[in-house]
Amino acid sequence: MDPWMDHDEIAAEISFGMTEKWPQLFFDHPLYLKVGQFLLGIYEPREMTDFSSFETGAFNTTLRLTFIDDSTAIIRFPMPGGIMFPEEKTRNEVSVMQFISEKTSNRIPILVPRVARWGSREDCPAKLAPFIAMDGINHKDSVAQLLEWPLSARRPNLADIGCYLINPKLDRPRQAVIFREPANIVLSLSTLTFDRIGSLELDQSDNSTPEWKICRRPLTLSMNQLVSVGCLPQSKLPSLDTTYDTASSYFEMLAELHISHLINQRNDAIDSEDDCRRKFVARFLFRKMVQDQNLKEKWISHENGPFPLWCDDLRPQNMLINEAEEVTGVIDWEFTYTAPVEFTHAPPWWLLLKKPEYWPGGLDHYCQIYEKTLPAFLDAMIERENEAIQNGHLEESQRLSGPMQKSWDSGDFWIMYAARNTWAFDVIYWKKIDQRFFGPSESSEEAWKERLDLLEPEERKKIDGYVSQKLEEMRTRELVWDPDQYTLEFMETMENMERIEAKTADTTETADTTETADTTETADTTETADTTETADTTETADTTETADTTETADTTETADTTETADTTETADTEKAWLAEITERKKPIQTTKTAETEKTAGTKEISEAT
Question: How far, in Å, CA of 37 to CA of 371, rounded?
Fold first, then answer.
């Protein structure tokens, strides 16, 4: 049986295909110019020296302007296929960066990019996508590079498992030094609390003083992935205006999502009837842990909050550093929301860089290495806590080091991880959660059979129906997918791109075939002419030889010239594009009047923010 659940491979292939194709839109000259001019207009009157593609990740494509003083500005777009809620995601990320900048600058600071402008898809050039234009962060590396085990230093059998594996040669003092900055970020976030669980919004209603409130659902990384590669219908997610006032109500929603996901993912969710039953039993028992008061009291200790800010994608790769190993900025805040205190009280999974379910030595080995690494992180956390308390920015009761150690020792760490990570849920539940709450079993593989008696009769009956459904879906392998409109539209665009590529390939192949035929015909004609030459034409032949030699030299010279031209063509094109961006900037720049801003719906953020 699978230790964890796979993505729907049909949906994943489409989704990942789109994130590969979408950045190619910027190969289009007019679109490239529009975006470059748009970004330069935001930063006018600064002068640029370069505009280029900067980075494409799993969720966003970023383009960068470089100015004459070597500072940078970037514009970032969520990619269809990767992001299922582009407008909501963009709005949330901007709100979080504004809030963090405003609330931490005079306390325990977290450096985030300054947002210059953001807007919806309607506000973007060519209505391409929602966007965020922000100052670039000057950096050398990320914290991950300090922790990472270099590929060149690994044993051959570990060289092919990818990057981001913690370096075993780092001793505890060195790890503690590296973890100082990440610990400070985690500590600072824990002090930003609200009375509800959800996403941030600056409430400016009733002409009153703007106030930060929790008004919308918590948009999580898991929710995005459930729709993208888990084929969960969007209707199964919490509505946009849903928030939570207790930890248990939020955990119950997460438990229901685990069940709903398994029901709705048609492909690659199970590999056998037993595997299917095992997965449903685990999810039903996890829900029981939330609903049963006696069980719930064992691991939920802050039912009513206050609920701290939490970022699903916070990790060393997103913490950028300078030469002195100081964090100069933290990026990628789109999946940030207020969450149960228990999330923050669990130590970060990312201390080893790689997720537990992907650890090359398996879950047990992950735990062994994690237990050796956690003390260094807690050393750094205690140091940061002491500094904050001394400076009057933290209360003694707000320390995280003690609760983090307790969460790891008790196993609460794994409940939090399983609640947030739907595809890793099964291996975590059976190895780290089940026996703690429901007693010992002979084997984690067969424990589900013993646990059936713990379910209600109605639950067992439902499982029978779900199993029949899932086995039929294994046979048919149909895609039932509910992505956002943004993704659906690009699917059509991608199909057109593929048709054009196929047509171009066919045309090229035909041209190559014709050229080969013409070359063969010419060769045959030449051979015939050579055969009919006589001794009487020797002088003519000598003359011809001289001419041929001259012609060859001319041809070589032409070829050399052509090669030189080809070599410089790309560079010249890039220079021309940059010149066009600069020259054509003024006719399309946005007029920054109140009426224009109101009409366009573009959001301008002042330097003071």
Answer: 51
Calpha distance 543→472 (Å, rounded): 82
- The Cα 7–Cα 13 span in angstroms is 10
Q: How far is CA 419 from CA 297, 507, 534, in A?
A: 16, 53, 92
CB 427 within 8 A of CB 444: no
- Region 217-226: what's the mean pLDDT? 98
For the record, the structure tokens of 49 come out as 């020296």
**Reduced to 3 states, what is the DSSP secondary structure of residue 113?**
coil
Strands 115-119 and 319-321: unpaired
Tell me how far apart the alpha carbons of residues 474 and 230 are, in angstroms, rounded to a whole number. 15
Terminal-to-terminal C-alpha distance of the chain: 52
Question: What is the spatial distance between Cα 210 and Cα 605, in angstroms, rounded to a whole number?
Answer: 14
Place of tokens 């140091």: 383
Phi/psi for 266 (5° steps) reads -75, -35
Round to whole Å and give the CA distance between 419 and 221: 12
- SS3 per-residue string spanning 522-535: HHHHHHHHHHCCCH
Q: Look up residue 195 and give its two tokens.
A: 């009375």
**For residue 545, what are the CA distances in angstroms to 524, 532, 535, 541, 551?**
19, 17, 15, 6, 10
Q: What share of the chain is helix, strand, coil (3-state, %, to 5)?
A: 60, 10, 30
3-state SS, 46-69, equals: CCEEEEEEEEECCCEEEEEEEECC
Question: From CA 146, how far away is CA 142, in angstroms rounded?
Answer: 7
Contact between 296 and 290 (Cβ < 8 Å): yes
CB distance 379 to 26 below 8 Å: no
Sorted by sequence, the CB contacts under 8 Å of residue 455 that are 6+ apart come out as: 281, 284, 285, 463
Q: Tokens 């995280």 map to which residue? A: 400
Nearest CA to 343 out of 372, 301, 384, 377 is that of 301
Domains of the chain, residue spans: 9-476
- Nearest-CA neighbor of 133 among 35, 27, 20? 35
Q: What is the pLDDT of residues 535-589, one digit of tens each?
A: 444 444 444 444 444 444 454 444 454 444 444 555 555 556 566 665 544 333 3
Angstrom distance (rounded) from CA 36 to CA 51: 7
Q: Residue 514 is which amino acid?
A: T
Cis peptide bond prior to 45, omega within 30° of 0: yes
In 3D space, the residue among 567, 570, 547 whose CA is nearest the CA of residue 559 turns out to be 567
- Specify whether the CB–CB gap between 429 and 254 falls below 8 A: no
Gap between the Cα atoms of 394 and 401, Å rounded: 13
- Give the pLDDT confidence of 111-147 residue by residue, as tens digits: 999 999 999 999 999 999 999 999 999 999 999 999 9
- Residue 390 half-sphere exposure, CB side, CA atoms within 13 Å? 6
Segment 318-336, tens digit of pLDDT: 999 999 999 999 999 999 9
To which residue do tokens 């296929």 refer?
Answer: 81
Beta bridge partners of 194: 307
SS3 226: helix
Beta pairing partners, 244: 197
Q: Which amino acid is at 363?
A: L
Cα distance between residue 337 and residue 330, in whole Å: 16
Give the pTM: 0.84
